[in-house]
Amino acid sequence: MGITSDLRDDGIRVVTVDYPPVNALPVRGWFDLAAALDEAGADLDTHVVVLRAEGKGFNAGVDIKEMQHTDGFDALIGANRGCHAAFKAVYECAVPVIAAVNGFCLGGGVGLVGNADTIVASEDAYFGVPEVDRGALGAATHLARLVPPHLLRTLYFTGRNIPATDLVGHGSVLEVVPRDRLDEAALAVAAEIAAKDTRVIRMAKEAINGIDPVDVNRSYRFEQGFTMELNLAGVADEHRDRFAGTEKARSE
């Protein structure tokens, strides 16, 4: 359980997230994922990264129950900083990152894949940002990299999910395959990249990041500022209590 990182002989590094039951990452998990991606990029033997997950779904965001069972704001601040570090590590990884998405990809999961370079998904995969239902904001920055502007607003305000098959049409998901072929499909794309001169690929990654029209690291931190306002107003706590089932415990 946790974050594992394995370098294959062909230069493909496979980073796996495994936090049962739903891959909702605790604070430590986000920072560990960031560290694994930073280390992958710093290793010149790594030509490309495949980011994948074990279990029923790719990622269910932050561990809200951890947040609600921690006194004060330490867990909230930790989750904010941890998510920022992990999303940034995906985006700034010195080599391309291929996200292999199975099942649900929600909240923080969208933050990860939205900053990835290529997305391959299973037939059962779907994406969503339910932040407004949790009294929080965030990951609109990354959802905006998956869908057009008006669809972004609709998905964000309603909390609706969108299936991976729809994202193929928008060009953000490369392909959708049966669940038992997901790893194979992601590794196939990774092998194409790994076979290139890694010195050129590393410069290409830096160059493409340099021409992005939006500074994703800064825009996400801007979003997080509104989350902190909702927390200070007590709004976010009400929503998280309902989600985590801690209302009764807090009122006694």
Automatic annotation (TrEMBL):
Keyword presence, Membrane: no
Membrane recorded as keyword: no
GO BP annotation list: fatty acid beta-oxidation
GO molecular function: lyase activity
Domain of life: Bacteria
UniProtKB keywords: Lipid metabolism, Lyase
PANTHER family: (7AS)-7A-METHYL-1,5-DIOXO-2,3,5,6,7,7A-HEXAHYDRO-1H-INDENE-CARBOXYL-COA HYDROLASE, ENOYL-COA HYDRATASE-RELATED
Family to which the UniProt record says this protein belongs: Belongs to the enoyl-CoA hydratase/isomerase family.
The protein's name in its UniProt record: Enoyl-CoA hydratase
